[in-house]
Write a sequence for this structure.
């Protein structure tokens, strides 16, 4: 969360798995996975937006799970994801602007991703927080 001195309110950027219960303070729930969850009917979606470009690339996703070779370490994955997100700076800036304007957002990842501290959603939250411009 970030403290906004101008409005004197907390502007949260939360992270969850897509199938975690919805809370009243979630704000806009944004799925940030490369792949849409299988078998979930449109009517059962728990997110308002899907931003697959903010998830890891197909190759990085595969490396995270050790598919087609060695399993990527967290540090290798983290560096690669942050490098990939350089090309997504405009999309990150849009989310940062929304947060700056007071919108609460929750970044959602896979239901299988149970360790938030080792998930791209935590890295993306940091990128968005860093991009939130300070009030003048």
């Amino acid at each position: 969360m970030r403290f906004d001195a101008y409005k004197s309110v907390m502007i949260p950027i939360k992270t969850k798995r897509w199938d975690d219960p919805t809370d009243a303070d979630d704000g806009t729930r944004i799925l940030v996975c490369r792949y849409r969850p299988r078998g979930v009917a449109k009517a059962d979606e728990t997110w308002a937006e899907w931003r697959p470009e903010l998830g890891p690339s197909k190759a990085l996703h595969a490396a995270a799970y050790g598919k087609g070779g060695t399993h990527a370490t967290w540090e290798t994955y983290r560096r690669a994801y942050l490098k990939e997100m350089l090309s997504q700076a405009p999309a990150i800036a849009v989310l940062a602007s929304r947060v700056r304007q007071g919108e609460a957002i929750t970044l959602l990842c896979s239901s299988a991703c149970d360790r938030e501290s080792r998930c791209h959603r935590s890295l993306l939250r940091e990128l968005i927080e860093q991009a939130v411009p300070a009030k003048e």
Notes: Confidence is low (pLDDT under 50) at residues 1-10.
